[in-house]
Design goal:
This protein is 67% helix and 5% strand. It is mainly alpha-helical. The chain has a domain of 84 residues: Orthogonal Bundle (Multidrug-efflux Transporter Regulator, Chain: A, Domain 2), CATH 1.10.1660.10. The protein has a 3-stranded antiparallel sheet with strand order 1-3-2. The N and C termini lie far apart (76 Å).
């Protein structure tokens, strides 16, 4: 069995062992493995790296990309946003940035208690005005 045939057998075995979207319990994945897990072509993965800051594979000494499990999960999220939910690349980037900001803000509230209360009161007042405007139509 030559080298190419052995490689094809390995790839088929890996693809068969993985269900769609299942991520093996490993520390790092090569770009070919990520392609098999996610179903996203390698050139698309490299493009998404440049467009989405949440995908940051490390580099081996041989300059090969090594994706972490969180990178693979993020790729699956991006794939869903783009291919299933119909987002554009800028729209998906904006959504992911907003979600990242929400996670940070819930972890570390930066506004003091009194100021938060006044902001919520003002927001409630604005929402009531908006509701009244909509009911008039």
């Amino acid at each position: 069995m030559d080298k190419t045939t052995r490689q094809n057998v390995k790839e088929k075995a890996l693809a068969a062992s993985l269900g769609p979207g299942s991520i093996p319990d490993k520390l790092y994945f090569k770009i070919g493995e990520v392609k098999k897990i996610t179903g996203v072509e390698t050139h698309v993965l490299r493009y998404w790296e440049s467009e989405f800051k949440i995908i940051r594979p490390q580099r081996a000494s041989s300059k090969q990309r090594l994706y972490r499990k969180i990178d693979v999960e993020n790729i699956l999220t991006i794939k869903k946003l783009l291919y299933e939910d119909g987002y554009t690349v800028p729209g998906a980037r904006k959504l992911l940035t907003a979600k990242k900001g929400v996670k940070k803000s819930t972890a570390e509230p930066k506004i003091s208690g009194g100021r938060t209360q006044s902001m919520l009161t003002e927001l409630k007042k604005d929402l009531k005005q908006l509701q009244e405007m909509l009911e008039k139509k």
